[in-house]
Amino acid sequence: MSTPLLEVVDLRTVFHTTRGDVRAVDGVSFSLMAGETLGLVGESGSGKSVLGRSVMGLITNGATTTVSGQVLLEGTDVHALKPSARRKLWGPAVAMVFQDPMTSLNPVKRVGTHLTETLRRHLRCSRSEATERAVDLLRQVGIPEPARRLAQYPHELSGGMRQRVVIATALACDPRLLIADEPTTALDVTVQKQILDLLGSLVAERNMAMLLVSHDLGAVAGRTDRVQVMYAGRTVESGETRPVFAAPEHPYTEALLASIPQLSHPPHTVLRAIEGNPPDMARPPAGCRFAPRCGRVGEDCTDVLPMLSVVLGPSQREGRREVACHHPVLTDPVLTEELGHGR
Amino acid sequence: MGWEISSVARRFLLPVLELLAVLFLVSLGVFLLLSLVPGDPAVAVLGEGRTPAEYDALREQLGLNDPLMTRYADWLGGVLNGDLGTSLVPPQTAVLDRIASALPVSLELAVLGLVMALAMALPLAMWSAYHQGGRADRAIGAVTFALLSMPSFLIGLILIAVLVNSLGIFPRNEWVRPGDGLAGNLSHAFLPALTIALMEAAMFTRILRNDLVTTLHEDFILAARARGMSPLRVMVSDALRPSSFSLVTVLGLSIGRLVGSTVIVEYLFALPGMGKLVIDAANQGNYPVVQGAVLVIAVIYVGSNALIDRSYGLLDPRTRRARA
Questions:
Q1: Topology at the third CATH level for domain B96-319
Q2: Threshold 0.90, pTM exceeds
Q3: CB atoms near residue B171 (< 10 Å)
Q4: If both were cysteines, with which of A5, A309, B58, B266 could B42 make a disulfide (CB 3.0 to 4.6 Å apart)?
Q5: Is it the case that residue A216 has pLDDT exceeding 90?
Q6: Residues B209, B125: contact at Cβ < 8 Å?
Q7: CA of A194 to nearest chain B CA: how many angstroms apart?
């Protein structure tokens, strides 16, 4: 097997606040090959966005932040670099698509400036070359009349068009890794699919690796190779997307999937939302972070923090599956039956 | 078709009419205010101890016995013809000439002071905002706060004591007009301009720093960083413009304010500017000079603010009117 494009080893991001240390990312590991798409899913506040930004190095060690562990991007430890060397990676090696295209484009800068300044910063090309490439990029992300759009301001474009501009800006210097941080959350439902399809086809064309951060399981389901489910800054389950969603091992994954409304449900069915809220990351519970909200909680759950380990059970047949749970849904059938979870 | 004409009227005619209405009210205000000020101009001109008949003859001659509205109409008629009247106190020259010699001094002081203030405030505010909460930020905050709480004459006195009297870096004699040698003029204008600049810079720094801090938390700043832009580049190219609305507003108010209210600085440095002109004339009961000077200051104030209003479109494309 070749070396992975991105390797994240035991990444921890801790914010030192007046309320105490907030462990936004609490020991997460994964790796990503070129051309592969990994979905990071979880509720709001599960540490997904901070993880994405820590992987990129946008969040790094500072006066109020401690990042430990390793992020190896093509073999280079992102957090060990000097700031100026790290900035050189942002564009050609790794780029980010942000959540809200209404706020992630500078309102007083023309669309074209966003693109050309990035191109000129990294590729050291002339103004006219940069403009030419910018037109080409806008065309690639499906923006009609690209030459005219360059001179427009962000507010003159619709939300979907703006997100296409954001994507074009991210792709400007041909990054090997794209981090898409909730790229469709702020968009209309009809536009969401277009943007996800666009991202999918661009990733495939360029053989890029993509980290798709989203709380939208539907968005992740059909468009990722593997998925990693996050809860309270930790990975609770990871594996190939299809089997994970078809047969979740972790109760949290199961509950997340159950909370998606289905058309097959009869009208006025009460939606099965997960009771309670994610824990306060400054004072996480002692044992399993999910224990207070879990339907399968046992005595050991509130005392001992479950570690991520390879599952040896029915789900093992479909790719490598890891879960951090004392009583996984499928591999602990005794408890499953006791609780009447007839699966 | 009719819609197009009305939209043109709305864009160009309306602001001009607005401006004219404001100026009309200003002229009325200036005139009435000074007519209500106690003190008899006739006594001011002739001095005490003349016969009532002599005073009355002068009043008649100056038109002071006419009804208020007649006097206002006469005065406004003169103003519109470029005649602001004649000084009552010797030298009895035209008010316009007095203003013409005082205004350049004040304008030079105001412009030079503001340019120096901006030259200090922009880097300080950016430095402060970048290191928000850090040692530099707190130090700059403390110094600007101290400057703001100091009266301007104190700053001027300290500057004179140190730079003129102790170190002898700057000359201390009569004002030199730019026409009589630019170097001499600038060396005389520098200290008073610096006195003004320090006060204004303190205010500008605080205003801009706070707006920058807010802007730096915006997503588009993070996005610009994520494109590999350097901190300085992000600050100047991305953060500065969206953060400068309050600063530009205050700057507009400062231009108008400084032209008329640098009296203390003008006295301190013996400068023949507008502030000195108004105060001296008011003390002498020389009302045509006061009226004329206040009117000119008011026009500059209104004009500079009208310009600032128009400039928001340059700062933020979202406030520009849609091009039909």
A1: MetI-like fold (1.10.3720)
A2: no
A3: 12
A4: B58
A5: no
A6: yes
A7: 22
